[in-house]
Design brief:
This is Aldehyde dehydrogenase. The protein is of the alpha/beta class and about 500 residues long. The chain has 16 helices and 23 strands. The strands form 6 sheets. Strands 15-16-17-14-13-19-20 form a 7-stranded mixed sheet, with helices on both faces. It has a 6-stranded mixed sheet with strand order 10-9-8-11-12-22, with helices on both faces. A 3-stranded mixed sheet has the order 1-5-4, with helices on one face.
Length: about 500
């Protein structure tokens, strides 16, 4: 098996305690790599390395243009190694090679974009109301930033955080999911090759309760950026607040996918399938609640059932595969439990409803059949709680007002989508849907140029685009007096 080391202070090191743990291939259910099991000592070393790199050495001496050059060089190296990184991610998380190869070929754009933005972070001269006073602002880096990523798209989620953090001049400690650490460690080799000074980027691996909390609590960490579940995000936010750390939290979703009776049906069917089954439902933006206008509900559901039936399950490394395994054993069990909950609540299972079997899925993989429920009421758990799997809950509605009421009746607000040909409806719905991203006549489109984040329990802050870099900066106001004499020292000017 492949055996990895952590990357701390520009050095490849074992965990201080010498421990390792297995990373499993979700398709085979067998271990394929050994990952260092970090502890508090490893966290302390990584944060110290990042703090030292931020305060001393070559990194703070680089011009913003120099930082941008390094980021663009890193983007080039990712592009050159995209296929290798994609295969590692598929082996680690079981997502389709077609999707992961696309992601890895697209990820360089984050480093090109923020590399170009690095020397365009500008303050302002403020025409202040105080006489003989010159006032300007500076936008300065925070210090040591920590990125904690989920297991579904490790390097894409890392790019969301790392690219703006380094463009702003911060240093970074990455903590990938214990289920999918290998690709981040391979990525660290490219950071090293790109020529970043030692300590600017560090990777510690291990379990959340052993090093995640240690990173969140560490007094020398200025910022936590996390992608993952609502419960973990809530915990991170509470712990980080004790030491007034800044946080960006991109959390769960129960996104409504709405189809009106004037929609282009063929396209809407493909959009719905993409929103819930293309990544085995393992995305925070999954369109897991399908709202269909009652006049076309039955016919539309029949269409998606027929389409989903034909989806080819199997080895995610084969380009013909359309549905891969669930990434982790705990998630596999959770999805099956939710299917049982939906049946117990009275929903009707019209497709799937259990583990997948057959020669195409092998003997040890974590496969769940694409599953569709009808007869769902929005108050059911299957319509309110994030399953994070290939499970679709179908709910009929009569008119636009009812669609909005059902769509917004959730604690989440990460994304929403709808299909219609009515431009007036497009404007009304896009304004009133309570979601950070709204797709119209498309779904599951992400860009490095466009902000991503949630309303309500779906998170705090935004990633991607111009909005995101502000999360890695702090503003300083500088006032310079040009007066010859100091005024009364006992009176505030």
């Amino acid at each position: 098996m492949q055996s990895y080391k952590m990357f701390i202070g520009g050095q490849w090191v074992d965990a201080a305690g010498g421990e390792q743990f297995e990373s499993q291939n979700p398709f085979t259910g067998k271990p394929w790599a050994m990952i260092p099991r970090g502890r508090q000592t490893d966290v302390d070393q990584a944060v110290l390395a990042a703090k030292s790199a931020f305060t001393t050495g070559p990194w703070p001496q680089l011009t913003p243009s120099d930082r941008g050059h390094l980021l663009r060089r890193l983007g080039d190296l990712i592009a050159e190694n995209a296929d290798m990184l994609a295969r590692i991610e598929v082996t680690d998380n079981g997502k389709l090679i077609n999707e992961m190869a696309f992601q890895l070929r697209y990820i360089p754009q984050w480093y090109y974009y923020f590399g170009g933005l690095a020397d365009k972070i500008q303050g302002a001269v403020i025409p202040i109301d105080k006489p003989q006073t010159f006032n300007f602002t500076r936008h300065e880096p925070l210090g040591v930033c920590v990125g904690i990523t989920a297991w579904n798209s490790p390097l894409l989620l890392l790019a969301y955080k790392l690219a703006p953090a380094l463009a702003a001049g911060n240093t970074f400690v990455a903590k990938p999911s214990e289920f999918t650490s290998a690709s981040t460690l391979e990525f660290a080799k490219l950071v090293e090759k790109a020529g970043f000074p030692a300590g600017v980027f560090n990777v510690v691996t291990g379990f959340g309760n052993e090093i995640g909390d240690a990173l969140t609590c560490h007094p020398d960490v200025a910022k936590i950026a996390f992608t993952g579940s609502e419960n973990t995000g809530r915990h991170i936010g509470q712990v980080a607040a004790r030491t007034f750390k800044k946080v960006t939290l991109e959390l769960g979703g129960k996104s409504p996918h709405i189809v009106f009776d004037d929609a282009e049906i063929d396209n809407a069917v493909k959009g719905v399938i993409s929103g819930i089954f293309a990544a085995t439902g393992q995305t925070c933006i999954a369109g897991s609640r399908l709202l269909v206008q009652r006049s076309i509900h039955d016919r539309f559901v029949e269409r998606i059932v027929e389409f989903a039936k034909r989806a080819k399950k199997g080895d995610p490394l084969l380009t013909g595969t359309q549905v891969g395994p669930v990434t982790t054993p705990p998630q596999y069990r959770k999805i099956l439990e939710y299917i049982g909950v939906a049946k117990g609540e009275g929903a009707t299972c019209v497709l799937g409803g259990g583990p997948a079997s057959g020669p195409e899925v092998g003997d040890g993989g974590y496969f769940v059949e694409p599953t569709i429920f009808t007869g769902v009421r929005n108050e059911m758990r299957i319509a309110q709680e994030e399953v994070f799997g290939p499970v679709l809950a179908c709910i009929p509605f009569d008119d636009e007002e009812e669609a909005l009421r059902i769509a917004n009746d959730t604690t989440y607000g990460l994304a929403a989508g709808f299909w219609t040909r009515d431009i007036r409806r497009v404007l009304r719905m896009s304004e009133r849907l309570q979601a950070g991203t709204v797709w119209v006549n498309t779904y599951r489109v992400i860009s490095y140029l466009s902000p991503l984040g949630g309303y309500k329990h779906s998170g705090i802050g935004r990633e991607n685009g111009l909005d995101s870099i502000q999360n890695y900066l702090q503003t300083k106001s500088v006032m310079i007096s040009t007066a010859e004499d100091v005024a009364d020292p006992f009176v505030m000017r």
